[in-house]
Every structure is written in C-alpha cells, then in structure tokens.
Write a structure and sequence with these properties.
Blueprint lengths: L3 E2 H17 L1 H28 L4 E4 L2 E12 L2 E11 L3 E10 L4 E3 L2 E3 L1 E13 L17 E2 L4 E6 L6 E9 L2 E2 L12 E6 L9 E13 L1 E5 L4 E8 L4 E5 L5 E5 L2 E9 L8 E3 L5 H6 L2 E5 L5 H10 L1 H19 L5 H22 L4 H23 L3 H23 L4 H19 L7 E2 L4 H4 L5
Parallel strand pairs: 2-15, 5-16
Antiparallel strand pairs: 1-22, 3-4, 3-9, 3-10, 4-20, 5-8, 6-7, 8-14, 10-13, 11-12, 11-14, 15-21, 16-19, 17-21, 18-19
C-alpha cells in the first residue's frame, strides 16, 4: 500500500486553516447584519417615542423663587435676577403602569407602550425660604420677588402628558401650563408666596396620566422620598441611583418601593440657580425598564460570537475523522460545509424576526443538519456516516442553543463545552501517527449507500 507522507497531511491542515480564516469574512458580514437590524429596531422605538412617548422621567414639584438685585455695570444700574429652588420636605410618588394590549408597530418591529397614572403628594417647608434662615442668606440689596414664584412639575417629555386629574397647592387648585426659564423640562403654574412664605409650609397633590414606552423613572426630589411603582409587566429591570427596598415580581406583573433620603443624593433641599445641574438631578432618578426577555439580536450576536469556534471544531473533528477512518474530504468540501454553517446564523436572525426565537432556532438548525447530513452522505458514499454527522451536528447546535439562552453563564458554559469538544478530538486521535498515515485501499472507501 502507498505511504502518505506527513507533508501532505500538513498541507491539508494548512488549507483547512485558510478556509477557516476565509469564513471570517461572511461571519463579519453577519455581525454587521445583526448591528444593522438592531439599529432599525432602535429607530422604530424612536419613532414611537416621538408620537406616543419614550423613556419618561417625572419628579415631584419644585418651587422656583426669583430674586433681584441692582448692580453697577459701567457706571449704570443693572437688575440681575437669580432663581432660588426649593424642593419638598416630603414626597410620596405612586405610579401604576398599564401596558397597552396592542403594541405599536413600525414595519415588522413591535414596540410595547404604556399609560401610567402618577400621584404625587407631599409638602414644602417654608422655613427654608424665610430671609432670616441661615439656609437662605441674601446679599445686601437683594429683593425676593415672592409674588412671581413658580411651581414646576418636572417631566422629561411634556408631549407624553395625557391628562391632569388633580393639581392643588396650599389647599387651592392651580392651573399648570408651559414652563418658563429654568432647569429640567416640565409644566408649571404661577403661585404667589407673598403671604404664604411666612407660614410653616404648604402641601401639594398632583394626579396625572402619562404615556411612554420602555422605561419610567422618578426624581426623588423630597428630602424624604417614597416611591411606589406597579406594572403589569413580568420582566422589570430596576435602574437608577438606588434599587428598591421592597419588590414583588410575579407572572402577572410586579410591585416595587424605593425610599430615598436627601443624604442619598448630590444636592440639597434648597439651592441657587447654577449650583445644581440638570445632570445631577437626572443621576438621582430611580425607576424601572420594561426589559425584553427575548432580545433576538442580542442572542443572534451571542451565537455569531461562537461561530468561528464551532466551525473550527467541526473542521477539526472532520479532519480527525479522516485520519481515523481513512475517508477523505476535499478542501472544497470543507469550504462548502463552512458556508453552510455560516448560513445557519443568517437564517436564525431572519426567521426570529417573524416567529418565536425557539421555533426559529429549531427550524434553522434542522435545515442545516439535514443539508450537511445529506451532503456528507453523498461525499462519503455512506448513508449511515451522513446520519452520524447529522446527529453530531444536532448535538452541537443543541449545546449552542444552551449558550445563546444562558445570559449570565454563557462564558462558563461555552468554555466548558469547547474544552470538552477539543478534549474529545484529542483523545480520539491520540494514537494517530501524524508522520506516517496509511489510507485504506480505494475499494474500501467506495462503499455503496446502506
């Protein structure tokens, strides 16, 4: 029998390595496809946010008290105005989020939207505003314009406001309208504090309905803030400066409660204009994101990340099988199998946009296993060897499915699976003499279909 020198085996192994490198090109294109489709979905969210409402942030009311002083500039008197912000001493926020049963569609992308009732109650401590208070010291010549004060209700998107059921301050009803100058967007009302500031304080009560999507947050503007939030969404992702002190998550929805103190944030109960930024307010927000448990693009991207490793191990298994069984595969056949393996990920992403991810995965994997099984049955001239290859590929894609679903343990499981696969190939070929390989007679490789 002929002796095949190790050089030919080395050359073939090098060619297989080159094929793996070439397959990086379609895999890179697949990653760009996933990124592009995820970007289109994000555009769908933005379009819905423009027409309905996006990630909303609402806060308890803040009092804006203007001050004025006269200064000399170039020999002329100028009036300089500066606002003082007073936050509530106590704030209670109660939000009840109800998802609309009909999501909004932009093309093939469904965007869940919600309507939320917002109840804000609490009180201001006016002792902080009295001129004799050390917390509110005034420069000489500064005048407080009590009658021009404003009560602002922060709201990140005024267009998301659907209804104002109740708006009262200091025991009387107020009319909210567009905001004047100042930090954070929202709605506001003029209030006259000429007499009221001399009292210990005043309570407020707001009841409104807002529309949004994806997330809702609350600014804890009270020195003591209690936030209660409930929603009929079973997959909350709590976010913001602090996590809820209590939460209850069920299949039908969740409830959560936050308790935030003035000491837990970067600003106090009262400050002058310019001392606190809008960014500081936003960073203190607490809330929840309506997490999508089945993010097809995230799972697709995770699957593509493992693609080159699975393709390389598949090729290594085929190459080892060649040396053990003396069944030869041409490098072009490796290339065709590699392209088929790459097509699986494109099929998975395309199908999962229209059907459930699990069904899309099974459909794409079944199509690939059937294709490779039939192809290898013909290439190896053996139906049972094609069936074995198909069974092995079924196991491989079953393991990949576990990796794709496992969000927290994908790295650990992936490392274990890939190590086990490599170890199996090494143990199966540990007795192969790579310096001298003896192929079987041609008659033994040309078997008929069984």
């Amino acid at each position: 029998m002929r002796i095949v020198e190790s050089g030919s085996v080395t050359l073939k192994a090098a060619l297989i390595g080159v094929i793996v490198l070439l397959l990086l090109v379609p895999l890179a294109m697949l990653k760009s496809v996933v990124t592009e489709r995820a970007g289109l979905r994000e555009q769908a969210y933005q379009r819905v946010a423009e027409g309905w409402g996006g990630e909303l942030t609402v806060g308890g009311p803040m009092l804006i008290v203007p001050t004025e002083r006269i200064v000399q500039i170039d020999g002329k008197e100028r009036r300089v105005r500066n606002d003082v912000y007073l936050l509530p001493a106590k704030l209670s926020a109660d939000l009840d989020v109800k998802l609309d049963p009909e999501p909004r569609y932009v093309g093939i992308y469904a965007v869940p939207v919600y309507l939320s009732t917002v109840r804000l109650q609490g009180e201001f401590d006016f002792t902080k505003l009295q001129p004799i208070s050390p917390d509110f010291s005034l420069d000489s010549g500064t005048r407080i314009l009590w009658s021009q004060s404003r009560l602002r209700l922060p709201l990140s998107s005024v267009g998301s406001l659907r209804e104002i059921k109740q708006a009262s301050f200091a025991g009387g009803q107020i009319k909210l309208g567009p905001p004047g100058p100042g930090m954070f967007p929202g709605i506001e009302a003029w209030v006259d504090l000429s007499q009221l500031y001399q009292t210990p304080g005043a309570s407020f009560d707001f009841d409104a309905v807002i529309a949004g999507s994806r997330a809702v947050s609350v600014l804890p503007l009270g020195s003591v803030t209690s936030v209660k939030l409930s929603a009929d969404w079973p997959h909350p992702s709590f976010q913001g400066s602090s996590l809820p002190v209590e939460r209850n998550i069920a299949d039908t929805g969740f409830e959560a409660r936050w308790q935030v103190l003035e000491l837990n944030r970067a600003y106090g109960e009262i400050w002058r204009e310019g001392n606190v930024t809008e960014e500081m307010l936003s960073k203190s927000a607490v809330g929840v994101s309506l997490f999508q448990p089945v993010d097809i693009y995230q799972r697709g991207e995770r699957a593509v990340k493992y693609a080159v490793l699975f393709i390389a191990l598949t090729f290594l298994t085929f190459f080892a099988w060649e040396q053990v069984t003396r069944n030869r595969l041409h490098p072009l056949q490796y290339l065709l199998v590699g392209l088929a393996l790459s097509m699986f990920y494109l099929l998975l992403i395309a199908l999962s946009e229209h059907i459930a991810f699990a069904i899309a995965y099974v459909t794409a994997a079944a199509a690939l296993v059937l294709l490779i099984g039939l192809y290898l049955a013909g290439a190896l001239r053996s139906a049972w060897r094609g069936a074995i290859a198909g069974g092995a590929m079924s196991l491989v894609y079953g393991l990949l499915y576990v990796l794709v679903l496992s969000e927290n343990y994908s790295l650990l499981l992936g490392s274990i699976i890939l190590f086990a696969a490599l170890a199996a190939v090494m143990l199966a070929t540990r007795r192969v003499d790579w310096y001298r390989l003896r192929p079987e007679e041609p008659s033994q490789t040309e078997e008929s279909y069984q």
